[in-house]
Structures are given as structure tokens and as C-alpha cells.
Amino acid sequence: MGLSNARIGLIAGGFAAGMLTLAFAAEPLYSAFCEVTGFGGTTRVATEGPKEMLDQTVEVRFDANVADTPLKFRALQGPQTVQIGQHGLAFYEVTNPTDREIRVIASYNVTPHLAGPYFNKLECFCFSERVIAAGETRKLPVVYFISPNMVEDRVAKNLETITLSYTFFDSGTYNGPRTEVSGPVPAAAPDAPAGGGAANPATPG
User: Fold this and answer.
1) Does the residue 59 lie in any domain?
2) Measured between alpha carbons, how far is residue 157 from residues 16, 56, 143 in Å?
3) Span 44-72, mean pLDDT?
4) Local structure of 12: helix, strand or coil
5) Which of 44, 47, 51 minimizes the C-alpha distance to 127?
6) What does the pLDDT look like over 21-52, one tens digit per residue?
7) DSSP calls for 74-94
8) Is residue 90 part of a domain?
9) Where in this chain does the entry annotate a coiled-coil region (predicted)?
10) What average pLDDT does the chain have?
């Protein structure tokens, strides 16, 4: 027996409504999925550091970009060599060269993308709106570590270099995930390299 036109209409309408709902939900769901899994090079946000630090080291490079905003944005140090499980501390600098305040949000990822699940940040300036006053220059710290679990990944365990990349977007056009501004960031992590070059061995916190 064939379906009536009314029933077909109800099914089609329900399908269309479902697809519309998925379209609106897809971006935040995808962003949340990336944050949890590290998919696509999205780094993970940790609440505490690892309990061990390995002898194996990785070079971490820092990249800075802007999109749809006149801000000047740069990393303040060159590559850092950190032991897996060790806290690293890096600084970025953002300057507003205009005569008006600018509202922006920073997004980030790492390359190679397969490092995403293992690159963790304890403090960062990502996903929260920031107001940069006219003529202001601000220093922005990042505290990070590479999870010891990376050495159990048969491909990622061979990584020698990871690049952390930040991009500032105008908050009016940014459509990615957002979070509230986090609390103050410490001037340095206990075992973090203060600038470019090799890190000093230390007991992880």
C-alpha cells in the first residue's frame, strides 16, 4: 500500500527539520569533538600536568597569524626543546596599531595534526573574546606539555618537531567555539623553558 501524500509530506518535513537542526549543531559538535580527541590538530586543554617526564625531547615551534583584523601578532621566542611530559612556557605578543579598540578571539591548532591528541595546554588565551585597546601591546603566555602517551602511538612517537599555531579573528566574524576568559597565568611554570633553546631538566609538577 502506498503512502498518502499527507504522510509523505510529514516525513519530508521532519527530515528537512532534522537536517536543519544538524546544520546548526554541526559546528559546535565538531569543535567539541576536535577538542576531546585532538582531531585535525586541535590541541587539548588539561587541568593538571603529567606525573612523569621522559628523556625523549621534541622541538616546539610557534606560529602567529591574523585574519580579518589589523592587529600585529607574533611569537616572542624561537623554537623550544622540551622533554615529553615537561611543562613549557611560551609568550606571544599582540599589538593594536589603530586608534580604536579591537575585539578578537584566538583559535589554534598544531601540526602535524597527529600530534593534536598529545599536545596539552594548561593555560592559554584561546576561544575567549579579548578587547585590545587602541595602541595597546599585550603579552600572552601559554603553558603547555606533550603527553607521555605519545610514545605509545606507533606513528606519533617518532615526531621530532611540533608547531603550535595561533590565529586571531575579529570576534564579529569568528564562528568557532568560545569560552570564558581564564584566570591569571603564572609568570613561569616550575620546569618550563623561559625562552627559545633547550629546556633545563626538572621534576615535572
Assistant:
1) yes
2) 45, 10, 22
3) 89
4) helix
5) 44
6) 443 333 343 344 344 433 343 555 666 678 89
7) EESS--EEEETT--EEEEEEE
8) yes
9) none
10) 76
Nearest to 60 by CA among 111, 127, 108: 111
Residue with cell 518535513: 13
pLDDT of 188 reads 43
**What is the Cα–Cα distance from 22 to 172, expressed in whole angstroms?**
23
Looking at the 3D structure of the chain, how many domains does it have? 1
Determine how β-strand 44-45 pairs with β-strand 119-123: parallel
Question: Is there a contact between 70 and 95 (Cβ–Cβ < 8 Å)?
Answer: no
- For 147-204, the pLDDT digits (tens) are 999 999 999 999 999 999 999 999 887 666 655 444 444 444 445 554 555 443 333 3
Other CB atoms within 10 Å distance of the CB of residue 13: 10
Classify residue 17: in a domain, yes or no. no
Give the separation between CA 30 and CA 44, rounded to whole angstroms. Answer: 14
Q: What is the extent of the structural domain holding 94?
A: 39-198
Which strand (E) or helix (H) includes residue 5?
helix 5-37
Residues near 35 by Cβ (< 8 Å), separated by ≥ 6? 42, 44, 45, 177
